[in-house]
Structures are given as C-alpha cells and as structure tokens.
C-alpha cells in the first residue's frame, strides 16, 4: 500500500505502521550515541588537546561545513535515488570514522587539525544520512502521521539528551573522551543494520542527465523560498541556528573553564534539557494541533530565549547552585526544543510533495548548517575576545530577533493540515 493511499486510513498508533518501529529504534540508538560524542569531542578539545573556546568553535564548524559546500547538490541527488541504501551506507561510514578517532589518539597521532579533518569527513556522511533519513520517513508513514511520528523521535531524542550527557560525563571521567567516542561508533553500526531490515516501497532510481542537476536544485530553492509560510519559517530557522551555534559553542567552555564544573557535573546540567524535552515532545502533537504550528513554534522560541538568559545570569561560586541554575536554563531550552521540533518538521514535510522532500530538507538544513559554520567559530572568538557572558547575551538577543520576525510573518497563522498555504 502506498503512503498516499494510507493517508485516509483510520488513526492508529504510529508504532503499528510497518517499518516505523525499526526506523525509530535505529534513530534512537544513533541519537543516544550522538549526544555522548557531542560532549566527548568538546571535552576532548578543551581538556585532552588543551584547546580554547575558539578551537571548540572550529571543530563544531567543521562538522557542518559539508552542508554549506555540498548540501544543495546532495539534496538533488538523493531525490533521484532510493533513500534506504544511502542511509545504511552513511551509517556504516560514520561508524568507521568515529572508530578511528580513539585509534589515532592511542597511537599519538591525534591533533586538533587531524580532528577537524575527521569531523569534516564525518559531516559529509552525516549530510548524506540526514538527507536520506528525513526523506525516507514520509515513505514509511502517511502524511497524516508525520506530526506524531516526529513527536515519537523527539521523545527518544529527549531521553537520549537526558541520559546521554550523564553517561558521557561518567564515561569521560572513567575512560577519557577519546574512548567514549566508541559508543557512538557502535550506535551507527546498530542503526545501519536496523535500517537495512526495513521493508519500504521505493521507486527505482531516476536516470537523469548531469545538466539537469541545476534545474533540480533551483526547483528546490523555489519551493522553499517562494512559499507563503514555509519561506518565513525557513528564514527564522536559519537565524535560530546562527545564534544557537553561538550559545552552544560558548556554553561548554564557559561551564568547564569559568564555572569550574567537571565533565560529570556538566552532564548533569545538560541532562535537564533532555528531561524537559521529553515532557515537551510528549505534548507537542496536542499543542500543535490546538494552537497551530506557527504559534507553537513562536512560543517555543520565547521559552528558549528565557532559558539562555537564565544561563547568562548564573552566579559564580557554589557548585550546587551553579548546577541548579544551569539546569533550569537548560530545562527551559529543552522544553522549547521538545515542543517545537515535531511541529516544524511535521508541518514542512506535510506541505511538500514527495519528489521535493530531499531537496526541501537539504536546502533548509544546508543553510542552517551554514549558520553553524559561521556561528560556532563566531561564538568561540566572541568568548575569547569579549568574555563568555557578553557572548551569551548576544545569542539571547538573536533569539529575540527570531521571535519578532516570525511573529510578524505569515508563518504565525500556519496550521497542520493546511496544505494550500503555498
């Protein structure tokens, strides 16, 4: 049965849809490993390699550089091909690259430039995997189920965000940051095996001439940036990623170097975002259906701005108080993420035709990741140049600008099920 034919089926739990449970499990396993690696790499840069906030920014930027360089091309190519084999191959490639990092460290060959190169290559396969994964989901579940399907993956994200930082902090303390990366390598191996077992009907790969690549890319750009509600949503998301990159880059060295937290204490503070994110994702479908996608996303951006403002105001001294204040800020941030992500993803996928899914997603994600490539080093240099707290306040101010832009745009009236918004 095709996805379009299933759109009119009676509502049922999304886990009962064929293929979704395996997709969700693969996503959840790799997501857990990713949260461990995210912290492990930053701790590796700061503590193992003796780097600064600027170095953290360079590594974070390298992770997303392939989106800036190749995102639009990969999106057009993925739309021509079967998506499941691409996702499986990308998972196995990421497992191999992550497994090489502790090996290089053990041999004494790991340095900041080498790490940046490995992270950039990893980012390329992440680009392919993300484009294939997010475009495969609408072929597994009907469009009417995209909001709850994304809400379920957000819930697993929240659980990983809750446990991942704590586990990462414990692992890093016990065996060191380089060895902790192996957990993520194993998670991608498991994900690749699970995805390979999903049965999904996919059209055969299109045989198209190379010169048609340009028109395909332009078609994706037109869909994203000429749509009445998708365009302001995309632009607002770009701005969010720019300032979020500044904030997240500054946060870890701020906690480790200025607030003098250990990796485990940092993990505890970060875990609050996962707990709140789980709560948010649990009610995101209900809230998005009642309020509409636009109003929900705008309210969530306000929550996140308040959370980061709380972090910027954290007092110095008293470890328990510092952890509590950081946890409250991360909690508000995680709650906003948990509520907003399913509404953003569900809305934009539901209004986009299947033959434009990869191009739409990679167009938006490529610019989003380009914002990280700019924002992560910018956050690091701001932290070094003017201090951690002023850099955090710049990020908070950026979130406020995003809220104002979305509130004044047609996206504020966007609702799920309104497929005529273009």
Structural notes for this entry:
The protein is mainly alpha-helical and 422 residues long. It has helices at residues 3-6, 20-48, 53-78, 83-107, 112-140, 146-175, 177-196, 213-225, 230-258, 263-291, 293-312, 319-350, 357-386, 388-407. Helix 9 runs parallel beside helix 13 and helix 11 (293-312) packs antiparallel against helix 14.
CATH architectural type:
Up-down Bundle
H/E series: HHHHHHHHHHHHHH
Strand content: under 5%
From the 3D structure, determine the CATH topology.
Growth Hormone, Chain: A
Give the low-pLDDT segments.
Answer: 1-11
Computed structural class: mainly alpha
Number of helices: 14
Mean pLDDT: 84
Shape by Cα distribution:
globular
* First-last Cα distance: 28 Å
| Name of the CATH first level | Mainly Alpha
Rg, nearest Å: 20 Å
Total discrete domains: 1
CATH homologous superfamily name?
Answer: MFS general substrate transporter like domains
Instruction: Give helix % range.
Output: over 70%
Q: What about the largest sheet?
A: none
Describe this protein with a few key phrases.
422 residues; Growth Hormone, Chain: A; 80% helix; disordered N terminus
Could you give the topology of this structure?
Elements: H1 3-6, H2 20-48, H3 53-78, H4 83-107, H5 112-140, H6 146-175, H7 177-196, H8 213-225, H9 230-258, H10 263-291, H11 293-312, H12 319-350, H13 357-386, H14 388-407
């Amino acid at each position: 049965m095709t996805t379009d034919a299933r759109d009119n089926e009676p509502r049922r739990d999304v886990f009962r849809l064929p293929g979704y449970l395996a997709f969700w499990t693969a996503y959840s396993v790799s997501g857990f490993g990713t949260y461990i690696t995210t912290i492990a790499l930053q701790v590796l840069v700061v503590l193992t390699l003796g780097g600064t906030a600027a170095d953290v920014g360079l590594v974070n930027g390298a992770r997303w550089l392939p989106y800036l360089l190749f995102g639009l091309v990969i999106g057009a190519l993925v739309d021509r091909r079967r998506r499941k084999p691409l996702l499986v191959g990308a998972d196995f490639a990421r497992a191999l690259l992550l497994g090489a990092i502790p090996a290089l460290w053990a041999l004494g060959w790991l340095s900041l430039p080498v790490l940046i190169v490995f992270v950039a290559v990893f980012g390329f396969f992440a680009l392919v995997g993300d484009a294939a994964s997010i475009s495969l989901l609408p072929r597994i579940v009907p469009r009417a189920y995209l909001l709850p399907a994304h809400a379920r993956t957000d819930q697993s994200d929240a659980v990983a965000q809750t446990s991942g930082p704590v586990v990462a902090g414990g692992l890093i303390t016990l065996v060191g940051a380089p060895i902790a990366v192996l957990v993520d390598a194993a998670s991608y191996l498991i994900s690749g095996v699970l995805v390979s077992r999903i049965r999904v009907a996919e059209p055969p790969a299109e045989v198209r001439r190379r010169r048609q690549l340009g028109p395909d890319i332009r078609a994706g750009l037109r869909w994203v940036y000429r749509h009445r509600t998708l365009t302001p949503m995309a632009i607002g998301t770009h701005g969010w990623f720019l300032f979020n990159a500044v904030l997240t880059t500054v946060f870890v060295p701020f906690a480790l170097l200025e607030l003098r937290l250990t990796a485990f204490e940092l993990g505890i503070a970060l875990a609050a975002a996962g707990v709140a994110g789980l709560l948010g994702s649990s009610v995101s479908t209900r809230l998005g259906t009642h309020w509409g996608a636009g109003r929900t996303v705008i309210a969530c951006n306000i929550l996140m701005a308040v959370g980061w403002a709380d972090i910027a105001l954290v007092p110095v001294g008293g470890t328990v108080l510092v952890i509590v204040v950081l946890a409250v800020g991360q909690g508000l941030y995680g709650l906003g993420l948990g509520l907003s992500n399913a509404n953003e993803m569900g809305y934009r996928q539901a209004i986009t035709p299947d033959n434009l899914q990869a191009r739409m997603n990679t167009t938006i994600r490529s610019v989003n990741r380009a914002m990280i490539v700019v924002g992560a080093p910018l956050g690091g240099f701001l932290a070094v140049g003017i201090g951690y707290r002023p850099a955090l306040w710049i990020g908070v101010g950026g979130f406020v600008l995003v809220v104002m832009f979305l509130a004044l745009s047609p996206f504020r009236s966007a609702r799920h099920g309104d497929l005529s918004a273009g």
